[in-house]
Specification:
9-stranded mixed sheet, Dihydrodipicolinate Reductase, domain 2, alpha/beta, 6-stranded parallel sheet, about 30% strand, about 325 residues
Length: about 325
């Protein structure tokens, strides 16, 4: 086939980044945007792309794929329209707001022979890919514990809580690392700015393998912290996205008369290569269109993440009551 061409629907806060990267990849044919400011931004970023205001102009056109960077509550309806129109679809996270809707999209994509991909951009981060590779190679031993902190001051949302805004990335990464769905999750949080909109949450995940994970996300933190720690039976891997430092630590515990004693070393810095994660994600969508092979963050991956998020949301609404996934779905 010829090189794939795509349309990006939405050129706002995040959509403009997708416009920029698909333009950089030489694949952007159209931008669908309603607001004058968004249209102005699109013209500046992609002067050769057609700017349209009607989704029908996209779905009835000859683009191969449609990329949706629209409010989360529109994802299901718009993605479904695009799949029915015979387009491959890339939808920003979350795939939908309800797992039944997400399952419908995955089923429809399969029936229509279309590619369905979800925007879990941090799965394309070169440092995260490196850690996943180390885990797959057995370098860390058996995964025992994972924690992920994603903290900052702002941007405060009023239409979705911090769990749905920040944590999808962390959930997706942890599921990839552990390689299984959790048996049980919990979540607690607090609403301090807008009623019923959590500004900070702490979530936990328990897996059948015995591994555990926790996720702490907040937009009311005085400084930026994005840190991933993966503890295995043999080694530990840590990544600090602020300092851009990826480290591999030997897990060394000595037995003494007083009991086990940990011996701390400096660890080894691991270099990693790679382009901007979003550019890698955009290329993955184009590759999926071209090769007809599912992307790393395909619809099934997005569905798994959504199921965990919904279970966490249920626990959050009940002040941290544990939710067992097999009972929920």
């Amino acid at each position: 086939m010829n090189e794939p061409k795509v349309a990006v629907v939405g050129c706002g806060y995040w959509g403009k980044n997708l416009v920029r990267n698909f333009e950089r990849a030489g694949a952007l044919a159209q931008v669908c945007e309603l607001t004058p400011q968004g249209q102005k931004t699109a013209r500046e970023l992609a002067p050769n792309a057609e700017i349209v205001t009607d989704l029908d102009a996209v779905l009835g056109g000859d683009v191969d794929g449609v990329v949706f960077a629209t409010p989360a509550e529109t994802h299901y309806t718009l993605a479904r329209q695009a799949l029915l129109a015979g387009k491959d679809v890339f939808v920003e996270k979350p795939l939908a707001l309800d797992h039944a809707d997400a399952e419908d999209l995955v089923k429809l994509a399969t029936e229509k022979g279309r590619m369905l991909m979800v925007g879990h951009v941090l799965e394309y981060h070169p440092a995260v890919r490196k850690i996943v590779g180390l885990a797959r190679e057995g370098q860390l031993g058996k995964i025992q514990y994972v924690y992920s902190n994603r903290l900052n001051l702002g941007k405060v949302r009023t239409e979705e809580n911090i769990l749905w805004s920040f944590a999808p990335h962390d959930v997706a990464i942890i599921l990839r690392l552990v390689g299984e769905m959790p048996l049980q999750v919990t979540a607690v949080g607090g609403n301090y700015i807008t009623a019923n909109i959590a500004d900070a949450t702490v979530s936990t995940m328990l897996f059948g393998s015995g591994a555990r994970a926790h996720i702490y996300v907040s937009w009311l933190h005085p400084f930026k912290e994005q840190r991933l720690v993966v503890t295995g039976s043999e080694r530990m891997a840590t990544y600090d996205d602020v300092s851009k430092e990826l480290m591999l630590h030997e897990k060394w515990v000595q037995q003494s008369d007083a009991g086990p004693v940990s011996v701390k070393g400096e660890g080894t810095r691991i270099e990693f290569d790679g382009d901007e994660p979003l550019f890698e994600e955009c290329k993955a969508f184009l590759d999926a269109i071209r090769t007809r092979r599912a992307a790393l963050t395909d619809g099934v991956s997005g569905l798994r993440t959504l199921k965990v998020l919904q279970a966490m949301q249920r626990s959050l609404m009940t002040s941290g009551e544990p939710v067992t996934l097999h009972r929920m779905f």
